[in-house]
Design a protein that fits this description.
The complex is a heterotetramer, with 2 copies of chain A (about 400 residues) and 2 copies of chain B (about 425 residues). With about 400 residues, chain A is of the alpha+beta class. In chain A, the strands form 3 sheets. Chain A has a 5-stranded antiparallel sheet with strand order 1-2-3-6-5. Chain A has a 4-stranded mixed sheet with strand order 7-8-11-12, covered by helices on one side. In chain A, a hairpin with a 2-residue loop joins strand 1 and strand 2. Chain A is globular. In chain A, about 60% of the residues are buried. Chain B contains 15 helices and 14 strands. In chain B, strand 10 and strand 11 form a beta hairpin. By secondary structure, chain B is of the alpha+beta class. Helix content of chain B is about 30%, strand content about 15%. Chain B starts with 9 loop residues before the first helix and ends with a helix. In chain B, the strands form 4 sheets. In chain B, strands 6-7-8-13-14 form a 5-stranded mixed sheet. Classes of the chains: A alpha+beta (about 400), B alpha+beta (about 425). Strand 4 of chain C pairs antiparallel with strand 4 of chain D, so a sheet runs across the interface. Bound molecules: siroheme (4 copies) and iron/sulfur cluster (8 copies). The site of one iron/sulfur cluster has 15 residues of chain C, from helix 9. One iron/sulfur cluster (SF4) binds next to loops of chain B.
Chain lengths: ~400, ~425, ~400, ~425
């Protein structure tokens, strides 16, 4: 059913020959001449064609799949019109991984899944097998495949009514703008809700995401539960440096609230162009710092984590939704962020107990009412959860319909 | 190996405990087996845990010749303490659509990355790239040379250009897929290599392709141009299989709820009543769907995948303008083209795309996403420039304010008026 | 139950004595001296106390009413805890009425309802009677009580699942900013949907409102169906007059879109301060004219009527909602506005046929989907119905959920 | 009488036809019986029907001594053709709460209005006033003198002041009412006479009072301060009467659907399933309500008024800021005080009101409604100035953007930072 013949001339259509050759560490040094960068240069190749990496059963049954079934949490059985069957074993994986673990993954794939591994859109790893015997062996193997510290290297799960892999961003391990760490916070949270990764006991899928700053590299803005790194101090300005490392007009234009204004100061008797920040107008978005390295915001006391809930992506039953900010700030508590993980777990458990089957977290909250959500999850309501940005009015309650709750009990 | 410098990392070590797969343990193992970069990375992370602040400098501009993206500069702000990660740039490598890999490919990639970088991956980045974190400026050109010559691979996007397109697993494995998601992803990536590698846009632009409205690649929340599979005809029903669900022979939702006792499957409660349009009917024997009222939300199909399937007249719904909050607040994408046939070479989609780009390059401000430009100029303007007929499907509901703009040509007599004539009739 | 004793000293607490005295046309001329305006002046009296006008049965049963029942369309029977009964006969009335009709109303009230008449919040008239015989006589009388032209002076109806009185504003009969007439358009529409005023055959209450300009003096912005006068030409500027009749800064500030800018022109060799309108930015709201008489917008070719639907006020089942603009413009066609009344009737009839019991028009449209609403009501969809004002984004469709309709049939 | 000048009004005459009560016929009759103003009014209306434009000039400022409102100036722009309506000012007279009138009062009013004006009423204006349209400037003071001395009546509001409060019929006749709507309306009107008559606000301010969430005076859409009755305890249920509805002895919704065959009453379908919170249960014998989940929408009570009644612990929900579109777009009012006991002299409400006014007079721009100021400054600011504790009931949902403002005092260490210290840890 898949016709890729029109791409035959693409250089990446078939890379099998290349892959047979081992990596040559000297190749570039021998063939690349920095003085003549265009010599022998290949550009705009694009990625290799996907189909060549498909397992055989997928090549054969592409577009012919008929149905699927979860054999157990983490294991999906696909059946084709042709009668062919393909089992998928899904495993958790941290996005940050080394060549060590990658090579081990290759070993497993070679042994059990025909030399193919796949990553999902949430950074889980998938092995495809076609017979039940291999399936069982693979599962058995993975159950005992552990890091020295005792954690499962490749925990099985992430299917059905579960919490799948927590998608996240770079954090202190690699980015320059984070207000919190990503990998550490996510590992801590995943440990806390681990039982929900490898089981099918939630009312629906529950997606947790994490982003380390307001840039939100991911779908944090539409997740059932999101952890978001937030700054709370305005940028300071390095007058002596800004002129040489930033374009001042760009720094000024960067601020969505116009809080950054050009200014001139005297340094050692010399007039120097710089900017000033109207701190009362700043909402700590960090966009000025993105544009200008001389305006850092990061601050141990200011930074921390906000919690958002109730977003979703799928169009199933209800339409996609934004996550809503329910806790504006929790301090950073490395390495285990206990306050964050505790509240996340509480939300998950309250939802698990209270929601209807098929009901996503945000739909549950909307059905019971947000006053009831706060009450049930025992989360204090903060003024900061009341919108006061551009489309704020649309979130105000313009009805007499509301529920009595702990918030009104002592009026 | 003998001169590996280990750091004292008591806090990071805490993250080796617990059941979830530990990145710290993996880094440690790799470090112990010879990578100073991994050890320094753990050391710097420990320092961040102490300081509660990042120790990476604001990224400098680095790259490979002729490309405007694909590499993110990164430098430690404590290079003396952690010299092997003083430079620690990111390489974004364009993944094969839907992310199947042969171990041959992966092993070779490991060989290269151990040779030319830190041996640390971010597999995959949020946009979809194979991300390799940690190399130095002098390695960039050789690395690119290796990638192209030894792998037939290329860099992904960064900067104000097309970003690496990505897609769900689609027809490769999923029976719901109404699109050849990978084929579309591949074709767009290949067609727009220039846009991907040479920044010419006001800001980033993202394509994501999902085979059906379950939207497993989160296109509707994260891409400037979500392409989402749908169908125009009728949901296919296997009435026998419906009976099998009703009688408990098949597990609802393929067994996705297996670890809890939700009671026996109740088709009325779990399907008919939850259908958002209430267009399904069940008389105990036959399931009927009024397909014209169906909004193809996928719920019934998800619950009974062995009995129900999307129709056969398939195509895509095209939306526009999703993005993260910076600057104007997050946006979900807006429905623009309700249905478009998606057949190679996807001419209609490409024509539409190029109209969007032309307008955006003309009107967009620096760092203004397409979604923000649509908000600023208004959806009606966007429809005009992209030559789409306005239809009610594009809105949740019609406007409630009466502030309508009329063009001079739309109003008889235009806007020239004769004051003297007016005052002849109406004394001031 | 009603204790008004604290208002005993208010001058309006009991006006009965005053009401016994006939109106003295010479009183003011005799007692008011324009040169001494403060002499004998009474100010800040406020309205008379309401309770003194209550019919006896209401005075007695205030706060004790137990239930009500519609005896027939337009007639409500209230029963009190005390066993007392009160019948209300509700009649349509144009808001614009003369002392002639008013005196006739008084005659009727004197004869049938103990000398009391009441107006509802939608400008209907109500008579209160306590026995069935009088009730019957009153109804019989009203049925034959007609204007010379044949219209019912006081048509009975306006209760239950009906279209009650069309609330409206001044129009060409009295206001300075209208883009259409009020009374004539409303009379024409009321004639067209008359059968729904005196019957209980709709799925729910259906409220029609009318406002003659964007000031919307009424609840047009939250009505099931609204007719709204709209301008479509930018104001012109009377350079020779503006300086003397307007405060130029106020005229400039009036424009929500900043389309009005100060300007200077030469008239007869003299420099004159005035304003200029950026016509391309104007959205014809008329606010500049409100502030400045020298900027008229009214224009026979430009003005007309927009139709909005789907608003509501009550908190019943669903929350209050804004009306949505579904037809941006229909030309003024006095005296009968056939294009407007035709489409209003079509909407009413489509709704009547299609909606569920208890379902308000806007809830119906939302349930079937707006694409289906347009299709069923046979109304062409206009680009102008797509919002592009401040909160526009919140009305965009951010889902793949939509229905196939006539709009997509020929894609 | 003999010199009545009739105009040829063929178009207006069309409006005498048809069943709905004809204002044109009424005006004509009054004109024929001696009012030149009515004839001229018809004549000018005919001219407007020809020209499709209004023939009223932009209102001039007229009024009575010491008051800043209550009169709207109005002049014909074709005074030569219609001299008797050359001046045609509006008088807004403050109606008695809930609009019951004795015929004695009405007749006397007619006498006065025939003497001092056109004899044309607008009964009532949208805000609630008895509106009299059509008199001349010289009649204003005598008319006011008559009103106060011969009627104990007063003018209503216009201009930038408190507008005439209005209310639903409430306990006078309606069994649903949780408030003495008239009493509140009267008391507010009397308490704030000064604010009503002497413009001191940035723009108009409106109170409206409805006895229950059916909101028969449309407060939530049209007033700056809607006061809407509600209850805190339990819906009162008469189970016998419920049975009577179920068995068809009582008509659902008091007979409001009598002219159509909707089939026999089905309590499950018509009440239980339509309850927005699904907090009602019916087992065929007893109706149960989980009152804590009820949002007091009134539906069940409306459907079965003889069986269900609001609770006994009654009070008001206070909202804020409804308005028509000019300038920023229409607003429905926002919930501010979920519950407040409403007992004379309504001290809590008045304290709240005065906080609102103080802030608005301080911060509001010229012609900025309270609702717009709340939008401009943000609801959190409004809550601070009115000393209300933020609670989730105030929002449909929590914010989705992360753009939170923090005060310097809320963040440990404040906003002073030591650049040198920072750079000691972080090389630039
Ligand atoms: C493998 C993957 C696609 C890929 O290209 O990688 C995938 C695969 C499937 N998805 Fe998905 N989804 C995948 C990411 C997503 C995402 C995106 C995300 O989470 O970032 C979504 C949107 C989530 C959201 O709404 O926030 C998503 C929303 C769904 C839904 C709708 C669920 C709902 O209740 O709203 C279904 C239907 C269902 O679960 O019955 C679905 C159904 C499926 C099915 C059953 C489709 C099929 O027949 O193959 C697959 C197995 C589901 C399972 O594991 O429970 N898939 N699916 C992705 C696995 C991610 C992971 O590792 O956890
Ligand atoms: C690597 C990655 C995060 C990750 O851990 O996976 C990433 C990392 C960065 N993102 Fe991102 N973004 C990444 C996917 C995203 C996504 C998700 C997506 O593409 O699906 C988003 C949200 C969707 C969207 O486009 O709106 C995203 C929204 C942003 C934004 C906000 C853009 C906006 O319009 O609101 C910025 C700010 C900017 O561009 O200046 C940003 C900026 C950045 C920068 C370049 C930091 C900066 O301030 O310049 C980060 C570089 C970190 C580093 O050290 O490499 N990144 N970024 C993701 C790219 C990997 C890949 O190519 O696969
Ligand atoms: C007399 C009046 C109050 C007054 O102070 O004057 C009144 C009186 C009653 N209303 Fe009302 N409503 C009155 C204006 C309103 C308004 C305001 C408006 O139309 O401008 C509304 C809000 C309309 C909206 O939502 O757009 C209103 C929404 C209701 C509702 C909710 C209806 C719904 O389905 O949403 C009820 C409950 C019902 O009808 O079952 C109700 C119920 C009632 C009851 C049954 C209350 C009672 O027990 O006395 C009264 C008779 C209803 C009837 O005639 O069907 N009343 N009622 C008003 C008559 C107006 C008229 O002449 O037509
Ligand atoms: C007479 C009346 C209409 C009617 O036919 O009943 C009326 C008539 C006028 N209104 Fe109004 N408004 C009347 C109730 C309303 C209402 C309804 C209400 O109060 O419940 C509203 C909408 C609710 C609100 O306050 O938002 C209303 C919203 C406006 C506006 C827009 C205000 C805004 O903030 O958006 C204006 C414009 C202005 O004030 O400049 C306005 C302005 C006017 C002016 C003064 C015209 C002007 O541009 O200055 C009209 C004078 C006409 C005349 O010839 O007398 N009128 N006006 C109503 C007052 C009668 C009374 O006292 O009972
Ligand atoms: S979310 Fe912010 S801090 Fe995290 S990777 Fe993206 S840009 Fe960097
Ligand atoms: S952090 Fe954001 S709001 Fe604050 S100054 Fe920088 S750009 Fe402006
Ligand atoms: S988006 Fe649809 S087609 Fe693609 S993997 Fe998910 S369920 Fe399958
Ligand atoms: S796909 Fe959704 S809308 Fe369509 S029939 Fe199934 S449940 Fe209903
Ligand atoms: S709606 Fe406009 S034209 Fe009509 S009465 Fe009000 S202000 Fe005048
Ligand atoms: S009509 Fe409105 S938009 Fe146009 S110029 Fe006047 S105030 Fe501005
Ligand atoms: S608002 Fe409530 S209390 Fe007032 S009249 Fe209407 S139904 Fe009765
Ligand atoms: S008042 Fe409304 S929410 Fe409360 S029980 Fe009745 S129907 Fe349900």
């Amino acid at each position: 059913m898949l016709d890729s013949s029109m791409y035959k001339d693409d250089i990446g259509y078939d890379v099998s020959e290349l892959m047979e050759k081992p990596y040559d560490p000297d190749f570039a040094d021998k063939n690349y001449d920095p003085k003549k960068p265009m010599q022998n240069r290949l550009t705009d190749l694009g990625p290799p064609h996907f189909a060549q990496f498909f397992p055989e059963v997928i090549k054969k049954n592409y577009g012919e799949w008929k149905t699927h079934e979860f054999v157990q949490p983490g294991v999906i059985k696909y059946t084709s019109e042709s009668g062919d069957v393909c089992y998928v074993v899904r495993c958790g994986l941290p996005r940050i991984l080394t060549t060590n673990l990658m090579r081990e993954i290759c070993d497993i794939a070679d042994k059990y899944s025909g030399g193919v591994a796949r990553w999902t859109t949430r950074n889980n790893l998938e092995f495809h097998v076609t017979d039940e015997g291999t399936l069982k062996d693979l599962i058995d193997f993975l159950k005992s495949f552990k890091h020295p510290g005792g954690s499962y290297k490749l925990p099985i799960g992430g299917t059905g009514a579960c919490i799948s892999n927590i998608v996240h961003t770079q954090g202190w391990i690699h980015c320059h703008t984070p207000a919190t760490d990503a990998s550490g916070l996510v590992k801590s949270t995943a440990d806390e809700i681990f039982e929900y990764f490898g089981s099918h006991k939630l009312p629906a899928k529950l997606r947790i995401s994490m982003a380390c700053c307001l840039n939100m590299c991911g779908a944090v803005h539409c997740s059932d539960i999101a952890m978001l790194g937030v700054h709370r101090k305005p940028p300071f300005v390095e007058d002596d440096r800004i002129g040489s490392v930033c374009e001042i007009p760009l720094a000024v234009a960067a601020c969505p609230l116009g809080a950054v204004k050009p200014a001139t100061v005297e340094i050692d008797g010399k007039k120097v162009k710089t900017v000033r920040v109207n701190q009362n107008r700043c909402m700590f978005c960090g966009n000025c710092y993105t544009m200008c390295p001389a305006m850092p915001l990061a601050d141990a006391q200011g930074d921390g984590v906000a919690i958002l809930v109730g977003g979703k992506i799928s169009n199933r039953i209800t339409t996609p939704k934004f996550s809503k900010l329910i806790i504006p700030y929790i301090p950073n508590e490395p390495p285990r962020w206990p306050s964050v993980t505790k509240v996340v777990k509480r939300i998950v458990e309250t939802y698990a107990k209270d929601a209807h089957k098929y009901e996503r977290l945000g739909d549950w909250a909307a059905r019971i009412g947000w006053e009831r959500f706060y009450e049930k999850c025992d989360i204090p309501f903060s003024e900061k959860s009341i919108d006061d940005y551009r489309l704020a009015y649309d979130t105000y309650h313009t009805t007499t319909q509301f529920k009595w709750s702990s918030h009104t009990d002592n009026l | 190996m003998a001169d590996l410098k280990k750091h004292d990392t008591p806090m990071v070590d805490e993250l080796k405990k617990g059941p979830w797969t530990s990145f710290a343990d993996d880094l440690q193992t790799r470090g112990d087996s010879g990578s100073q970069a991994c050890l320094d990375l753990l050391g710097q992370l420990e320092l961040s845990y102490n300081d509660k602040e990042t120790h990476w400098k604001h990224g400098g501009i680095v790259g490979v010749f002729g490309y405007g993206g694909g590499v993110i500069g990164r430098y430690s702000d404590v290079p003396d303490k952690f010299p092997s990660i003083a430079h620690f740039h990111t390489i974004r490598v364009n993944q094969p659509a839907s992310k199947f890999y042969s171990t041959k490919f992966l092993r070779k990639l490991c060989d290269m990355w151990d040779h030319r970088g830190s041996g640390v991956f971010n597999f995959h980045g949020s946009t979809g790239d194979m991300v390799m974190i940690g190399t130095s400026t002098d390695q960039l050109e050789p690395l690119f040379f290796d990638l192209t010559h030894q792998f037939d691979m290329d860099l992904g996007g960064s900067g104000s250009n097309l970003r690496t397109p990505s897609c769900c697993v689609g027809k490769a494995r999923c029976e719901f897929s109404c699109l050849d998601t990978q084929a579309i992803c591949y074709d767009l990536t290949m067609t727009y290599q220039d846009e991907l590698h040479r920044p010419a846009f006001p800001y980033k632009y993202k394509f994501k392709i999902s085979g059906c409205p379950n939207d497993c690649v989160a296109a509707i929340a994260r891409s400037c141009c979500p392409i989402i599979g749908t169908w125009r005809d009728e949901i296919r029903i296997d009435q026998k299989a419906v009976q099998a669900y009703v009688h408990g022979e098949l597990k609802p939702n393929a067994g996705a709820f297996s670890d809890r006792d939700w009671g026996p499957f109740d088709i009325q409660k779990e399907v008919i009543d939850l259908c958002p349009t209430k267009c399904m009917y069940w008389d105990g024997k036959e399931l009927k769907i009024d397909n014209r009222e169906c909004t193809r939300c996928m719920h019934c199909i998800n619950v009974m995948p062995a009995a129900l399937r999307p129709g056969l007249d398939v195509g895509a719904t095209i939306l526009a303008g999703a993005k993260a909050p910076i600057l104007e607040g997050a946006q979900l994408a807006t429905l623009i083209i309700p249905f478009i046939k998606m057949e190679y070479p996807y001419t209609e989609l490409k024509e539409y795309t190029e109209l969007v780009w032309d307008w955006w390059m003309e009107e967009g401000r620096n760092r203004e996403r397409v979604g923000e430009l649509i908000q600023r100029k208004g959806l009606p303007t966007f429809l005009r420039v992209t030559k789409r007929k306005p239809i009610p499907q594009m809105v949740k509901e019609p406007r409630s304010n009466p502030y309508v703009f009329w063009g001079e040509d739309e109003v008889p007599g235009g806007w020239k008026r004769d004051l003297a004539e007016f005052r002849k009739k109406h004394a001031a």
